[in-house]
């Protein structure tokens, strides 16, 4: 049951001063809270024996007020310190998860769905934070505070009466252990179901246009209702166990009260106990209700926290597929780039996406990559970006294999515009500044001119400050492509990769962008993958991929002379235009 505290020992060790202070302050507040019942019993005994005076009553009331003030101050200190630590843990864990996500490759995101990762980053972290705050509180209250109350009851009133009143405790321990195990199992299933539902909602929102276009609204509603019912059912299973805690505790506490009052009254009649002592004992018994409840709450919280921590740790324990090697090599600049017999198969697939691909690129060259859909063009670029491990052959930059180069440096050299452009829910200015954070408006407009978007920006209601909406929903496909191009252009990278990034623009716009590329990137390397061959006719070297292999290569003129696939495709496209 306490395994979750062991798993979080790294955090408690780092903030041991905070938690030591909070626990000591909590114990002090509990100790101060044990004094007022004794004052009540003291006053009752004076009343019973008719010895109460104004001086005694005034002294007791004054002492009571002082105790309240002291208790309030100490309680504030432990509350602020303890629950502040829980907030820090949640922040730390969230930062660790975010850092982990940013270091993961596509293989990781293929294994874990987005909705499930969101659930682990929200609900599970809340459960862990609750463990580090309320969990510690219930641990202290259900152990130290309970023992303090029992000790005061036994030492100052009567041990026989105390033991008799606490007879239900062993039954409670057995029941709480049973409930705790059931909660751990059911809560894990409930969180998994919540993650699946999250993912379904995310997919439905992203694909709302397709859902409407294919008139699938009712089917989506039915599917979502089924998922919410599953989440509801699993959470109700957790709630069923939760609901057993309070009645069980009330029955056991009621039994303790019955024993305490019955046996205590008998001791009063036998003059072995004063009336004041019996009243004080019952006040303490009332104070013991919360520590008893805290036992149940503790088990509940720890089991939930343990289940959530296991889910989060499972995510964090996934090692990066691509990482820096121990002995890194330093390269000052990109002088040449070479693929040498590069072969690659995606994880869990037998068919190779690339087969013995070899070509050489000099600095300043423009390389065109063409071929049928699925020929391996995008895979070629993903390997250059080091998105996947287990690459056969060598990719060499300036004489060094890319595996030996720092990942950060490699990716800083590269500007990448993928097939599916990612627009952030920000303004156009902020989306472009993603390529260069400190870019001025003049630099942004220059990049927009290169992307042939400068005239369009003037037509938008707020210019550069126009909000693009969720995933750029307010922009057309061609506009999104050109904003993405501007984002890459403003970075002015050593290697620019355009992966079918001109497919949504018309021929005139494409020609203008290509002309700007030729002018601006004379001394820098550019890769262009395209289905429309007019985008690569100016390239210094063109490779034609077929089933992951280079079927043809050369300049536009050389490939046209070979009368192969490139020639036939180019002629067909020209006739179509």
TrEMBL record:
Residue span(s) of domain ABC transmembrane type-1: 21-304
Domain annotation ABC transporter: ranges: 337-572
Record keywords, A-Z: ATP-binding, Cell membrane, Membrane, Nucleotide-binding, Transmembrane, Transmembrane helix, Transport
Short name of one Pfam family: ABC_membrane
Molecular function per GO: ABC-type oligopeptide transporter activity; ATP binding; ATP hydrolysis activity
Subcellular location: Cell membrane
Highest taxon above the source species: Bacteria
Membrane topology: Multi-pass membrane protein
InterPro entries: AAA+_ATPase, ABC1_TM_dom, ABC1_TM_sf, ABC_transporter-like_ATP-bd, ABC_transporter-like_CS, P-loop_NTPase, Type_1_exporter
PROSITE patterns reported for this sequence: ABC_TM1F (PS50929), ABC_TRANSPORTER_1 (PS00211), ABC_TRANSPORTER_2 (PS50893)
Main location: membrane
Keyword Transmembrane: yes
GO cellular component, as recorded: plasma membrane
Transmembrane segments: 21-44, 56-89, 127-151, 157-179, 251-269, 281-302
Protein's name according to its UniProt entry: Putative multidrug resistance ABC transporter ATP-binding/permease protein YheI
